Amino acid sequence: MTIEANASDNRIDALFAARDGGDPELVCFLTAGDPGLESTVPAMHALVRGGASMLELGMPFSDPMADGPVIQAASERALARGADMSYVLRCVEEFRSGDQRTPVVLMGYLNPIERFGFERFCEDASKAGVDALLIVDLPPEECCCVTDHSAPLGMKQIFLVAPTTSAARLGAIAEAAGGFIYYVSLKGITGAANLDTSDVARRVASIRERSDLPVAVGFGVKTRADVSALAGVADAVVVGSALVQSMHDAGTDAANAVAENFARELTGQTDSQAPQAPVSDAVRGAAEGAPS
Length: 292
Known about the structure:
Number of helices: 13
Radius of gyration: 17 Å
Shape: globular
Largest sheet: 8 strands, parallel, barrel
Strand content: 5-15%
């Protein structure tokens, strides 16, 4: 989607304000530093060329409790290469030198941010061009340690809603959230199983009763069919494990082409100029459940 956003505006708000229905916006997750330290920024640009509307950049962490084996392994590889918090922020800053439009969300866990320093992290993230933070193990009741620093800088705080989230807790999340609400479509870890779209539709409807924010659906979204099935249900879909696995399988030399072709497949593009990288088999393998 083409959006007209002033660089001083939050890019997430601009993206959803310009949305006019149709397929959900495609949010692509990749782990910073995997499959190589030099491949992250080129892969971010490649995903945008392929049709990604927003990027989630994973901050590598040694104990990613919500992530399945694919993203856990990606984090371990990235950490072994030295992909620390400073590296993650440099990736965003470098990406912004060529893209002032595409929203970037940093996704990860609280411990590395606490070690970096909450205030310093938020200031550096804002300067780099980050639009929002998704901190998996930060509950809304305790989020002020981050939001006291991030909100004045215009960064949104994204929260997860699970199938087991109670109505009372959903209310608390809706009150604290900004940008969009991320609905975890499965009970379990990332990449765990296939979607039950009718159940997702019921859950998303219940979220919309309590919040006017856009709703993104992730965990279990892997194929073009998944994206199409969520048209009219979700404002955005988040794809992670299948993409991360495909890029790892391709290796650093082919990762960018694979990433671009991956996004093209999920957005249904038929551009004859699309690169002919071997993403289809990798994506299908992940979609069949091993591993994703």
